[in-house]
Amino acid sequence: MAAVMSGEDEKKTALESVVSETASASPTATSAATTDTEPPVATPGTTTRAPQPTTAAPAPPVPKTPAPKVYRGRGDKVVKFRPVITDSLLMTTSWTGADGNITIYALSPDGDEDDLLVNAIESYSGQALFNPQGSEVAGLKIEGGGSWTVKLASLTTAKRWNGSGTYSGKSDGVVNVASSFDPLDSIEFVSTNSDSNVTMYAYDSDGDADLVVNDIGNFKGEHLVPNDSVLFVINSDGRWTIKKT
After folding, report:
1. Exposure check for the chain: N or C terminus, fewer CB within 10 A?
2. What is the CATH number of domain 69-155?
3. Annotated region Disordered: where (predicted)?
4. What's the whole-model pTM score?
């Protein structure tokens, strides 16, 4: 799935922060080599000075995770981003008091509807992958009754699953799975308490997605996972579990 770039064409990919954060969380041990050297020999008329100890260069500072941006409102609203947002982010939404359909669309700089980020009925709490391709997002189109809160945060704050045990969730969710899968690895996906379409997309670091799970209601099945997956994005109105098989 991921394109390979090199030399002058190399640039930061849309979801690279997820890979970088996962790598930095696993420190590697290094060992210093020891070399036997002969002691310095003094010669007449010269002064021999003992070698001075060297000081290791300080480690580069760890970049701080940007503070999340929070938007609150009630009913229909157009939230405008000035300047536009080009980062891929984790969007968390909570919605109460609605009595019908609720939706949130990302808006392009031309005002066109792009990604459908939330599509639910009545009360809602869930997560979505905001701007996976790293394009320009100029705002959000929010429609529905009741009160809502939208938080945009760094993707490094997404919950991490390293592939061990069983991962459980409910509603829409985003899971960091960077470096957790090898070729031909598969998962068992179980859906319960659902009466609508359930999907799971696996994203690579370029923001490209494979549809891994696509079913309706309550089900259980085994699915192959691309080994370059860095994020799972689940859309469901019920509960679900994932485990390696």
Report:
1. C
2. 2.60.120.380
3. 1-71
4. 0.79
